[in-house]
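Tokens for chain A. Residues wanted.
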């Protein structure tokens, strides 16, 4: 099957255009300050980590994941311990004061992840009892933290999200027009 010259030119043009992710990156560079970028990464990593931990813990408890809880010396290691260790590392980076390290996206992501690991088992820390699977309030805590994560990510960089929406709409409409013209 041979391509017509017009279709070949269209495919070359598509390759020359930046991908949508590249456009999103350009939008972030234009609309986010370093502080907003760090906060946004923190909020998103918080939400992703919190959601992932919820799925994993339900999978372990439900028996549909192939692994079990983490143990050390026969004692269960709660994931808030990992969160505390992560925040300790982030704190050491902050205390050291290296500007490049403090503002690094990996530090913001680690902070969000560590905080989510602690928040997910916060009831255990308050009561010092393993009430993680108690029905009382569990759904409201899950929903509240999920909403808090999404809201925080949105409010941290509201103009950025509006511009991402505009760039994405423009990209989709242009792709639909190109697709409609080639069929």
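Reply:
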């Amino acid at each position: 099957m041979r391509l017509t010259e017009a279709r070949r030119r269209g495919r070359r043009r598509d390759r020359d255009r930046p991908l949508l992710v590249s456009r999103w990156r350009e939008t972030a560079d234009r609309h986010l300050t370093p502080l907003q970028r760090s906060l946004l990464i923190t909020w998103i990593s918080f939400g992703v980590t919190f959601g992932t931990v919820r799925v994993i813990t339900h999978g372990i408890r439900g028996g549909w994941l192939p692994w079990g809880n983490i143990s050390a010396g026969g004692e269960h290691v709660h994931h808030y311990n990992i969160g505390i260790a992560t925040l300790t590392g982030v704190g050491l980076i902050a205390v050291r004061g290296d500007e490049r390290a403090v503002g690094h996206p990996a530090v913001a992501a680690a902070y969000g992840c560590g905080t989510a690991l602690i928040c997910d088992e916060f009831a255990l820390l308050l009561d010092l009892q393993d009430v993680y699977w108690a029905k009382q309030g569990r759904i409201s805590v899950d929903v509240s933290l999920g909403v808090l994560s999404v809201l925080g990510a949105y409010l941290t960089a509201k103009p950025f999200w509006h511009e991402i929406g505009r760039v994405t709409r423009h990209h989709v409409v242009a792709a639909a027009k190109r697709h409609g013209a080639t069929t």
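The mean pLDDT is 81. DSSP finds nine helices and two strands in the chain.
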